[in-house]
Amino acid sequence: MIDKIAFLFSEGLKNFLRNKLTNFLCIITILINFTILGTFFVVGFNTDSLVNFFRSKYTFEIFLNDDVSLEQSTVITRDLQSNTAIYSVVLIDKEKSADIFLEEFGENVVDMLGYNPLPMSLKVSLEKNNFDLNRIEGLINDIENYNFVDSVEYRGAYIDNIEDKINLFIFFFLILVIGIVFISIQMISNTVKLSMSNRSDFIEILQYNGASDIFIKIPFFIESILQSIIGSFIAFLLVNYSFIVINSYFNLNIGIDNFLWAWMIGLSLIIGLYASNKAMKKILI
């Protein structure tokens, strides 16, 4: 039994070393495909945090009429904070507005005009959990009808469009995965067919001596396993260290799944074994 295992492994390794060029091209194909796939895996892994980042920016600003007092604005702030759709409300009085103007434009509005024309406002941050754009738009419409409100500035629709584009990206990602899987299957199948053609005499000898199909297939399975492991592992290293460099250079915090290597190698092995078996079925009839 041990001799058989050693023989099969030896033949698989010989097949791999014998077909250097075809195996090299197959490994390069797997490397390219799984580098692309691994990159999109990382992006997909960070999609939730990206969506939450944009949702954390869901804010709108309520500009109050000039005749609203500081005490009234405080009462309004408390009323808004009681709404479950609202995370926090920050009151920006006229002095804070002047400070913001100075910070953004480098000019003191009081020195320029002799008085402070800037209105008081309320910066409202929305609850990102269970976010409902229709509910928020209804809330804003209600607020705009209040007597003390001059205007409401809200750009949540733009952020919502970004979320739609993220969902579209996920859809195209799934199509890309299917395309990469198909290309990998075709490339590995062709490599196995070529390898078996080169070893046709050896296969005939084994068949003549009563070897089963599974016994004949195992060396070629080993060859495709080596292709898959080498190609996908190098792809993982490339993806992993690329994002480490990107995080370091751009001061980002892109997370990488701790099991990314297992997903990439595991998927590559499944594709490799399926493609090999598919190719060998057509030959070993």
What do these coordinates show?
α2 packs antiparallel against α8. Strands 2-3-1-4 form a 4-stranded antiparallel β-sheet. The chain has 11 helices and 4 strands, in the order αααβαβααβαβαααα. The chain has 2 domains: 172 residues, no CATH class; 99 residues, Alpha-Beta Plaits. It is an alpha+beta fold and 285 residues long. The model has no long low-confidence stretch (mean pLDDT 79). 73% of the residues lie in helices and 9% in strands. The protein is rod-shaped and about 100 Å long.
Helix content: over 70%
Give the distance, in angstroms, between the N- and C-terminal Cα atoms: 26 Å
Total helices: the number is 11
Q: What is the tally of beta strands?
A: 4
Please state the overall shape, judged from the principal axes of the Cα atoms. Answer: rod-shaped
C-alpha Rg, in Å?
32 Å
Tell me about the largest β-sheet. Answer: 4 strands, antiparallel
Quaternary organisation: single chain
- Written as H for each helix and E for each strand, in order along the chain, the element string is HHHEHEHHEHEHHHH
Average pLDDT value? 79
Query: What percentage of amino acids are in beta strands?
Result: 5-15%
- Structural class per helix/strand content? alpha+beta
Q: Order of strands across the widest beta sheet?
A: 2-3-1-4
Give start-end ranges of low-pLDDT stretches.
none
State the domain count: 2
